[in-house]
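Objective 1b. Sequence-to-structure analysis of Zona pellucida-binding protein 2 isoform X1.
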Amino acid sequence: MRAWVLLSAVLWYLTGVGWQRNSERTEKGFIYGKPGHPVKLYVKLHHNSPILVCMDLKRTEKETVDPTYLWVGPNEKPLTGNNKINITKTGKLMVKDFLEPLSGLYTCTLSYKTVKAETQEEKVVKQRYDFMIFAYREPDYSYQMAVRFTTKSCVGKYNDLLFRLLKKILDNLISDLSCHIIEPSYKCHFVKVPKHGLIPELFIAFQVNPFAPGWKGKCNESVDCQDNTNHNILQARNRIEEFFQSQAYIFNHDFNKTLPAMHFVDHSFQIVRIDSCRPGFGKNEGLHSNCATCCVVCGPGTFSPDVDVTCQTCVSIQIYGATSCP
């Protein structure tokens, strides 16, 4: 039996009758340096970085004699090719499977020669390029929802029965998605309705959360399961929205029946997305305007211990992605 049919039947039984990013990027996806200006970019966790070029756009349009390239990483040590770092002979850098500790300042020094045609006199020229790279991840989504139901009275057991029944139906509706209903609550208010006087209504609020018990077991071998949980919570949102749309439809189109005393108030469904960041990450629109909606790794001097959306200050921290303050 469909969930909305079940709820409608129970409402009749209970009460009877009444009445819802980046910088110097080219078409090839390369990121070029900018002399005197650090280039800021963001790499999604467990993804490869874009290709960083140890040159600026103007330099690439000119001949460069005997170029050499020296890359230095966030630990201030020269970078060499390994399973994480790929450096080409032409000075292009890519970081593979980007993680929090790989965040920081990447510096490349380009050295090349200028040769005077008349005297063959050589001069070594050096140019430094800075790239600030930050790991980021998408926020974890949850949804705060609110609906209203009419009731016979603000006093009586029927209100609690409806509240518990509604939560049970919604939990069952989304349980296969590893989502569940948390922080449910309701209050009864008297609403002045045109041509109907004062009507008692239940104002019900709840949050749809993607981390029901056992959610990690359905990650399909994903590294951190975030793509799965965000996909599932979107499906859960759609199912619940469709459920309440069905409630409105049945009462608006079934003209042969009188409305039960307890029924869904049409157009009362409201929904707001709530973002949270995993520990070690946070949002900072001022500092990371090019990735304002991202959860960016907490930098040195900051940390995030829980699923808040901001990094807190801790001057003793010297790493990226800290989750506690010593």
